[in-house]
Amino acid sequence: CSTSAISPSVFWKVSMAIVAAALIAVAVAFNFFAAHYRDAFSLISPDAENLMRQSSQAAPGVEERDPTNKFLARQVRYRLDAEFVRDTALAVAGLLVERVGGPSAKPYQPEGYSAPLNFPTREYVTDLGEGLYRRGLYTHWQRTFLHPSLMAFDAPAREECTANRSPSNTPMQALVLLNDPSYVEAARVFAEKALREGGATFEAKLGWAFSRALSRPPAAEEARILRGLFDAQQKRYAKDETAARELIDVGDSPVAKDLPLADLAAWTAVARTLLNLHETITRN
User: Fold this and answer.
1) Phi and psi at residue 244, in whole multiples of 5°?
2) Measured CA distances, 126 to 111, 120, 140, 181 (Å)
3) What number of other Cβ atoms are within 10 A of residue 192's Cβ?
4) Alpha carbon of residue 62 to chain centroid
5) pTM more than 0.90
6) How far apart are CA 172 and CA 149, in angstroms?
7) pLDDT, tens digit, 9 for 90 and up, residues 99-116
8) What stretch of H or E contains 270?
9) Separation of alpha carbons 126 and 109, rounded Å
10) Where residue 2 falls among pLDDT bands split at 50, 70, 90?
11) pLDDT over threshold 70, residue 32
């Protein structure tokens, strides 16, 4: 029959009943198949688990034959989402708190950043202890004033639904990785671990650091460049103890007192470089 013969209210009720019935049918079907989704997925793609675990580095000739990755011969490479960039640095340094749930966390944030918020005026008080090292998922978010580090790495404001983030690659992101207190502190703690656990020689410590941050050994050219960086920074900080102290005192975590000041500051410079690499914040 024609819908014109039905009042709007009746038509709305009937429509909602049909939608509800359809949703119930979908829920029942999902409940039935959920226990067998792995088997179903395996039938669709027998090598599904290997597909998800494979590297984004394609075998020789694959990119020429399949430039758009239509046949899923390699993993997709993309930069980590904003929340995971900081999580990665904290995890590499051994600072990340993995506790699930709880109140929002307030990591380091530029002083006065929330000053434009009124009615009432707000004061951002940085957390102490584990609140500084919780996952980015729990970072305090004040209306459209998301944490500036999240904003730098393309986290969207919560003014509207965002189905897909558009990643960018900007100089500001490199500056955040170098100068945000969270990353400077993570680099210093990472450097302390390298000095304590990496081995007796520079090469051994650098290999340990690469393995922890990048899951691979350094290339010869990388080792040469970073050796030069370490030597230059060590000489600088040996002559300027104040600058070394200013660098390693960043952050709330206690500074190691048993390590040579110039060595710790120089290794912190090396660790900052590793955490700043595009490879470190890219899912491969």
Assistant:
1) -65, -45
2) 10, 19, 10, 12
3) 23
4) 29
5) no
6) 10
7) 999 889 989 888 877 777
8) helix 261-276
9) 7
10) very low
11) no
Which is nearest to 132 in space by CA: 236, 33, 14, 251?
251
Nearest of 80, 75, 106 to residue 91 by alpha carbon: 80
How far is Cα of residue 229 from the mean position of the Cα atoms in its chain? 26
Dist CA 29 CA 70 (whole Å): 30
Asked if residues 105 and 134 have their Cβ atoms less than 8 Å apart, the reply is yes
Q: What number of other Cβ atoms are within 10 A of residue 131's Cβ?
A: 18
Residue ranges of E strands in 9-117:
78-79
Dihedral over Cα of 82, 87, 90, 95: its sign: positive
pLDDT at residue 225 greater than cutoff 60 = yes
CA dihedral 130, 133, 135, 136 (to 10 degrees): 120
Q: For the chain, what is the mean pLDDT?
A: 84
CA–CA dist 249, 268 (Å, integer): 11
Both structure tokens of 186: 């993570």
Residue type, 124: Y
Of 264, 277, 90, which Cα lies nearest the Cα of 188? 264
Cβ pair 263, 234 in contact under 8 A: yes
